[in-house]
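As the work plan foresaw, our protein records have gained a structure token line. A representative record is set out beneath this paragraph:
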Amino acid sequence: MRSLIAITVGILLGVLAGAEAQAQDGPAGPTSIAVPANWTTPPPGQRLVRSPLTRNTRGYDIRSAPWAPLGPVEVRDEWLLAQPKMTLPAVSPDALGQGRWHVKFHIDRGNDFGWNQIGPAENPTDRRFLIDGEHQTTELGIRYGLFPRLAVGIRIPIHWRGGGFMDGSIDWFHELTEPIGFLDNGRPAFFNDRFRVEGRTSDGTPISWNDEQGTGLGNIELQAYWTFQAPCKRSDWRAALIARVGLPTGTDPYDTGGVDLGLQVVAAKQVAPRWDVYFGVGGTFFGDTTQDGIEYEQFRAQGFLAIEYAVDARHRLLVETNAASRLVTNLAQYPGVSWYINVALKVAFSRKFEFEVGFTENIEDQQGTIDFGAFGGFTLKL
């Protein structure tokens, strides 16, 4: 048993009141100049015009700072049982900026293997559950800055799940790395490249998703990002509140019957010239807690911690860890905690184009988290 993590999270109650106000200039004068935001009186014959703001309403553009951060890679939990439901990724609190677009294309592919049973691998006397298969999610995400510190967005995912082809390669990897602690979880004793999601409840009722595989549209997610703490200088704290609504748009086999809600409070700070730290807490609410016999916790706490290191002007190395409370309630002996680590590289080819690539490994619990995942994508900032 690996060491346990204690998750202390709170779900922020209440609603956002008010709206982000936008200053309006008066009638044009003879000339206009851009001045610091703390000026109160313009020079004679000239009208005060606030500098265009891209990150906050106090005049500081964090993207132009030395070793400007690129932010965490927004990786979701794609475990076969979590894939159809809303999960909360690591995310930056930095504001997008009024009138700016953020367009992201992301692919996440992984292998899932977890089990709890008594008896031989393929002839058990009591199989509580077996989750064995592969997953892939291809997503398009678009955000737009309505105000300097308020942005809205949409995420459109296309899911796939099936038997895949990665089992043999992962067996070889685990055999190679077992001396340093990468355990194979008994995978070689089971059939390779099968799709099996099956088990029983505590009272013996059988559950099976074995025929529920293929490609389909997932739940479209609507998003709102409010940066309520914007920096005046590079080393200041930055913080944001992020709200998400998952619409029941999924097609078979990813159709759900209710609306999912998510809320996060995230923060970030520069801790050294090349280092930024991010963390966040929040939770999700599932409008429909049953899907094809699987019952989910209605409220789920989630949190993350991420570290970003500026290798040079273009390259950022990121290490992220994400943890969440219980996902499934009715599978016998199903674990109650999921905990991952993501390692990624981001490359800023320009201020408008970024590329990202990385991998995911589980920490806890091995029977209720993906075994291995890889992801990549690119972002356009317009």
Q: What stands out?
A: The radius of gyration is 23 Å.
